[in-house]
From TrEMBL:
It comes from the Bacteria. It comes from Streptomyces capitiformicae. Its main location: membrane. It is found in: Membrane. The chain crosses the membrane at residues 53-71, 107-129, 199-218, 476-494. GO terms for cellular component: membrane. PANTHER family: CYTOCHROME C BIOGENESIS PROTEIN CCS1, CHLOROPLASTIC. InterPro entries: Cyt_c_bgen_Ccs1/CcsB/ResB (IPR023494), ResB-like_domain (IPR007816). Keywords: Cytochrome c-type biogenesis, Membrane, Transmembrane, Transmembrane helix. This is Cytochrome c biosynthesis protein. Residues 563-580 have a biased composition (Low complexity). It is a multi-pass membrane protein.
Amino acid sequence: MTTTDSGKRDDSELDVVGSRLSTAPQEDALTMPQLGVIGWARWFWRQLTSMRVALLLLFLLSLAAIPGSLIPQSGQDETRVADFMERHDTLGPIYEKLGLFHVYSSVWFSAIYILLFISLIGCIVPRTWQFVGQLRGRPPGAPKRLTRMPAYATWRTEATAEQVREVALKALKRRRFRAHVSGDAVAAEKGYLREAGNLAFHLALIVMLIAFAWGQLFKSEGNKLIVEGDGFSNVLPQYDDFKSGNLFAADDLNPFSFDLKNFRGTYETTGPNKGTPRIYEATVDYAVGADGAEKATKIEVNKPLEIEDSKVYLVSHGYAPVITIKDGRGKVVFEDAVPLLPLDANVTSTGAIKVMDGYRDGKGKWDQLGIQAFFLPTYGGEDSAVVSQFPALLNPRLNLTPYHGDLRVNAGLPQSVYQLDKSKLKAFRDSKGAQVRENLEIGESMTLPNGAGTITFNGVKEWAGFQVTQQPGSGWALAGAITAILGLAGSLFIQRRRVWVRAATGPDGVTVVEMAGLGRSESAKVPEELGDLAAVIHDEAPTAAEAEVEVEVEGDDADRRSPGAAAPTRAAPAARLPAATQDSETEGAEK
């Protein structure tokens, strides 16, 4: 075998055969565009659709989302935004001008979002067409000098060149290589799923961006507190609070209704987790549409009721004491279950009872009645603090502090149903001038001073808080996320590689077999795979009796050995060859 001058070898062939292993756009040397609108537009488009700009925009988008999680957002909690503005006279107006209270709908966030979307499309479309072209084409033919490949093996055999090529073609196809005969060699390629995974990852990002935008524009989310025995219809007036996307319309709400039949909660009674909820479940009867038949089901934490693309989540729980109030004439002016809001893990609850119309005091004058209420599911006794000792109804007590006067409900200002505005109210006082306040057991009554009426604690019902969400595009977002993970895994772990098997008849009539492999990245699997293929082909085309074996891997100036020559001193990794050929040497064959 003859060799060229090792010091002057050129790597152009290696660059050519490896150039098509990737569908990444080839970047030409940067040249300034011609002056003019079209030239600058073309230059801007090339920069925007480059992969480095797409990665930069993705990084900027992640940074831009940080204020949305640290600063209160007006679309989620208007109260916290107002409180922040009150406490920060300087930062508040600045944040408002910068759009930091509504990050995800701000102009600058939308600009990054849209530019990233365009950049990804500009990156993917040409790469997709190039990849399709590669799939429709054939692997490139073998280079002139296979010895220049990183993994290389050769031997001489008595089999004809046609027989070797036929064996090689079958062996490569059995290993799922795309292979064909090109001239005196078989060209094969494998690992296309690597680039397919890369494209799938980027396409999945686009799907996720679209799904996220669609969900934000058409989403809706509302909360409703329901006492046992009451019901709910999915219409806007029924919600306690409601928020939606910019393109959402009331007609987009799915028509359904449900009644809360019963709520059941159980708790750990002993051990370090005492009081921790074990079961929270709400039994409901629901119907879809105006004429739908009622169906019974249970809603549990993280197990929502799904109706079309709406989900009904169980998000909170509490108690609603049943109160009966009579005025000074003995007339019932209020009788209902009053939901109270929990203050701690043991469901110590607070709230207000307001009688706005129909109440007369002991003298027959029209008045308004307001009562501050605290409820303890498990009262610890007179010597304990006024807090519940356990979240279950073991020893319930209702602590009431009554007031009368102007509730300010007609002032035109919104107020919470759970709080009293005491600025125009007067406390009821006993004969000693002390403010009236009592703890009531179930069935007990409080008598108001001066014949102003009575308040009776009749029992306790439980309430459940539900959140109804409608998030279109969530399924697409999930599918995009899964596809992105699978695509990324494919692009990271699948190796794109090429193999060539050349069989040519030498001057002495003996067939010379050459095999070479090339991977897109440095991978130990290429020499191993080449060695396995060589073993398979060697079984069908064994070494000729007088032939010697030569192996070269990544050898720019490797020695060529004739029979009996000294072994080269330079060590290089070799492809695994058949055992029968590993200790033999090969005679040179002229290229």
